[in-house]
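User: Modeling request: complex.
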Amino acid sequence: MEKRQHDGPDLAALPNRLPWNQLDEPSTRGLLNASYLATLNRHDHIDAELGIVRVGVLAIERALSDGRRVLADLFHEGDLIDLSQSKRVREGQLVALKPSEFLVLDGVRSEISTVGNASIAQVIMLQLRHHLARSRDHAADLVSKTPLEKAASVLFEFQRWPDTNDDDRQRNMVKIPIQRVDIADYIGVKPETLSRIVRQLEGEFLVKVVEQDRILLADIPSLRRIANGGRPRCSTKKA
Amino acid sequence: MEKRQHDGPDLAALPNRLPWNQLDEPSTRGLLNASYLATLNRHDHIDAELGIVRVGVLAIERALSDGRRVLADLFHEGDLIDLSQSKRVREGQLVALKPSEFLVLDGVRSEISTVGNASIAQVIMLQLRHHLARSRDHAADLVSKTPLEKAASVLFEFQRWPDTNDDDRQRNMVKIPIQRVDIADYIGVKPETLSRIVRQLEGEFLVKVVEQDRILLADIPSLRRIANGGRPRCSTKKA
DNA sequence: CGACTTCTTGAGGAACGTCAACCGCAGTGG
DNA sequence: CCACTGCGGTTGACGTTCCTCAAGAAGTCG
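Assistant: Request completed. Predicted assembly structure:
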């Protein structure tokens, strides 16, 4: 892992997307002054409490004592990551799932609490609420859905990621930003099961795997229905 | 559901606990002025974006299309509930799990965004971060743990709730604040399975069910080990 | 006492995790 | 050029687990 200290204002250092490109210049400089950029490869861990994903994908990774691996949350380009209230031991570590750049903001924690910079505080508050909603959504996905339903759900989640470009999005093509094994650890199934699920979806002509990391949603209404709980376990009772 | 409008400052209306009793009087009055108190019974829904639990237990409830019920998050006395960024949770509702009082703050949303009241914004930000960490924790619990591990984990979660009084906490007694069926919907198992799990834990002398809603943690180290992933599925390979 | 709710117990089967082997591909080195 | 290796992903066989369904206990209220 390579650290690069910012010694001056470098406006290009914030992701060029909402909400970061809406900040006024003083706020931007305030953020960047006490920050540094970390360049990460897959499986690199980074010890930070606060930061912004510039490129790539990060995740909160937890290892259970028997070796099972869990991805509690995923972060894409532009996401603010805030682990400040997370007891380190229980929460796990921040890990890169692919080559990434992470802007560490640990130094500006104080700057945010002070009322001086209201626009920054507002942006951060918005991100917090957004991620809270997403995390609850994810929890709801995990609670009682079948692997098939979880898989359909995560497809729609990836569709909303910035990795899917607009052209593809219009064609209902979804860019899969992470590896199968990571998806599996994120939705709580084994890679083998996930593989079988994808084949099943293909067999029912609901999706089409164009490339390894690009999937066409062929029948969105049916997929939506499945993602929303339309494929419970089979009852033993004959219908 | 009964609504009561506050027509004047009523300092007793905020929960008498951290962080609410730390607010200065102007902030408190600012919160209360545009708020109203909702009195709820079990299964009562309430349509609100922002509020504080005064007494009781609320939850974010989502119903899957086939009738499965999911509790995505639990809230106890003193918790701030913020659903402002929840789009998909639109299908999820706030529901009371027992007779409760909920202080609805929808009216003060604007007051918080404005920088005028920094202390309120700070308190809310802290609550957001706290709940975000909890929600990720819960997600990690749900991803790949066995029902036994989930049950052990949720016991420790309830131990941290204010419902467990200090006397009991010292004796490793945990107050179970909600019904079995709600716990089951929260950790994603069937009530039948949960019942069997509890009996199993009792059989191994790890817990003792003193009353229906009070459980003694008899062997905390072992329970901690289980909650942290010490009871994976059995391998088919002979040890 | 019945009517209701909540929780428990029991039996049976589908599902998903476990393990093992295989495939395709990329990089490496002889 | 081909063997070798490593990695990510897939396929297949098998067995435990936990869901499903149904019925019984236990507690509460009229």
